[in-house]
Design goal:
This protein has 211 residues and is mainly β. The protein has 2 domains: 81 residues, 3-Layer(aba) Sandwich (Rossmann fold); 116 residues, Hexapeptide repeat proteins (UDP N-Acetylglucosamine Acyltransferase, domain 1). 10% of the residues lie in helices and 31% in strands. It is built from 2 helices and 25 strands. The longest helix has 12 residues.
Length: 211
């Protein structure tokens, strides 16, 4: 495999680079739309230009290293010619029955248990756990130390904050955010923010299409 382009020059990008290197693969360059970062280095890799500079390259391989879910979706949609690579740290424990979509990042110490399904461009962050028969739809992000019990469903673009959890059989609606330390004990609707123990909806958000 030729070098992988990492899209996003923030802190999340550092972890993605570390994960790719732990896999024994090479990072070709970092791309970011912030002009002030061009020519700088992220974890020893040069930031060479904007994300759209991938266009015209022959069979580029890349991963989106941006933690904000709707931004990952926008980038993935506009760069349909890219071969999306998943970055899975060797220390992650993933059962052989788990299905993982392209562009997904699973970081050090994460655990994904049998018959779970992980969609495209998902982030399972450091030390997070996903128990049996969970469904994480496209563009989901579960933050470090998040714990999902069995049969939990996270709909498209849902975000689980650091140290949050969900009890068995619960569903978090699309583009909903569960705050840090929140405990999901009942289903949550889409386009909402929920915080606390138990996690309760505090506000409705505009539809993702309006963001």
């Amino acid at each position: 495999m030729s070098g992988i382009y990492v899209l996003g020059a923030g802190g999340h990008g550092k972890v993605v680079i570390s994960t790719i290197r732990a896999m024994g693969l090479e990072v070709e360059a970092v791309l970011d739309d912030d002009r002030s970062l061009w020519g700088s280095y992220l974890s020893g890799v040069e930031v060479t230009g904007p994300i759209d500079s991938l266009r015209g390259k022959k069979n580029p391989k890349a991963i989106i290293a941006i933690g904000i879910n709707h931004i990952r979706e926008k980038i993935a949609t506009r760069l349909d010619e890219v071969e999306w690579i998943s970055a899975i740290h060797p220390s992650a424990v993933i059962d052989g029955s788990v299905k993982i979509g392209p562009g997904t990042a699973i970081f050090a110490g994460a655990v994904v248990q049998p018959d779970s399904t992980v969609g495209n461009h998902v982030i399972i962050n450091t030390g997070a756990t996903v128990d049996h028969d969970c469904v994480l739809e496209d563009f989901v992000h579960i933050a470090p130390g998040c714990h999902l019990a069995g049969n939990v469903s996270l709909r498209r673009g849902a975000f689980m904050g650091i140290g949050s959890c969900a009890v068995p059989g619960t569903t978090v609606g699309p583009w909903t955010t569960v705050g840090a330390g929140g405990a999901v004990i009942a289903d949550l609707p889409g386009n909402a923010v929920a915080v606390g123990v138990p996690a309760k909806e505090i506000t409705a958000l505009p539809s993702k299409r309006n963001r």
